[in-house]
Design brief:
Elements: H1 3-10, H2 16-19, H3 24-28, E1 33-35, E2 41-45, E3 48-51, H4 55-64, E4 72-76, H5 82-93, H6 110-113, H7 117-121, H8 130-133, E5 140-143, H9 152-156, E6 160-165, H10 168-182, H11 192-200, H12 209-222, E7 227-231, H13 232-237, H14 239-250, H15 256-260, H16 263-270, H17 273-278, H18 293-296, E8 297-301, E9 304-307
Helix pairs in contact: 5-14
């Protein structure tokens, strides 16, 4: 069944945000399901395919997250440069809080400094302590949830949203390699041609791709002061000008003195794929959502890196 057909059918299904947690289990049973690329089921929820293992976390974030006007939310389709954008955003906002060479990115992975709603904060707790979860201010969060399904308080507040997308073919290849590393040993590898067919139908974590991208693209045109829409390839081509653009949007513009001192270039270097990959913290250990750090920064080919 095509995604568009499923979407129409699901419009009549009740919403767990209104029904309450007591009805959540029975409500899940009304959703269309599909196999995922690496094991867990996918639920078709509010027009996108939600991984079953984070479904409750998505609903909890929708129901309980209360945005502050100073919050910054990093958003993306999976495998489009989220790790890179998290590192850049954190470094820009907090650049005057640490001496040179003491950036927390040197000892903490970007996903701990800019935690996901669905894979981290709300995964095991419907009402996490966000103040203690965010060590630095302003608060920085991340999500793969499509724009239409974001927690309402994000859209209703003055919180800033930064979105990054990527060439869909590069994103697809990156996702295929990445999900193969997540596959349980008892799950057969998904052939490339079958994965491509599912990708074209939008059946993968937080798909469909074009619905996701268009949702944020349209919203960014409606409110340019709230949402910054970035493309991965543009950052690769000219990181310096895009760092300045990002800093200006976030309300932390670089001063003339900082530009003369090479602060912009220093952030670009610290957050580059090569620099992040070389750090011990990104070579060892497991992310807050159970994925080996080395997998999040694995190379697929010389011009296509797998940043979550």
């Amino acid at each position: 069944m095509e995604t568009t057909e499923i979407s129409k059918e699901n419009n009549s299904v009740s919403n767990p945000e209104l029904d309450g947690d007591d009805h959540e289990v029975s409500w899940e049973e009304t959703l269309h399901k599909s196999k995922n690329w690496y094991g867990p089921d996918l639920y078709f929820y509010q027009g996108f395919w939600c991984p079953s293992h984070v479904f409750k976390a998505v609903i909890s974030s929708q129901k309980h997250f209360q945005a502050l006007d100073s919050d910054i939310i990093v958003t993306s389709v999976p495998k489009c440069g989220t790790t890179w954008l998290k590192a850049l955003t954190f470094s820009i906002v907090n650049r005057n809080k640490f001496a040179k060479g003491e950036n927390p990115l040197l000892r903490s992975v970007p996903h701990r400094l800019v935690p996901f709603f669905e894979f981290n904060l709300y995964l095991n707790n419907p009402s996490p302590d966000l103040e203690n979860s965010c060590l630095y201010k302003p608060r920085l969060f991340s999500t793969h949830i499509p724009y239409a399904s974001l927690p309402p308080s994000i859209k209703e507040s003055e919180a800033k949203i930064v979105y990054i997308c990527r060439n869909p073919m590069d994103m697809f290849i990156s996702l295929w390699f990445f999900t193969d590393k997540l596959r349980a040993k008892n799950i057969e590898p998904l052939p490339l041609d079958e994965a491509f067919e599912m990708f074209c139908k939008g059946i993968y974590d937080f798909g469909p791709y074009f619905d996701h991208v268009l949702g944020f693209w349209r919203a960014s045109h409606e409110n340019r002061n709230k949402i910054l829409f970035l493309q991965y390839e543009d950052l690769q081509e000219d990181i310096i000008s895009h760092l300045k653009k990002l800093a200006m949007f976030l309300g932390f513009p670089f001063s003339e003195e900082e530009e003369k001192q090479g602060v912009v270039e220093e952030i670009a270097k610290t957050c580059s794929f090569g620099s992040l990959k070389a750090l011990d913290v990104n070579k060892n250990g497991v992310s807050p959502f159970g994925v080996p750090h080395s997998t999040l920064l694995a190379v697929v080919r010389c011009y296509c890196c797998c940043c979550c």
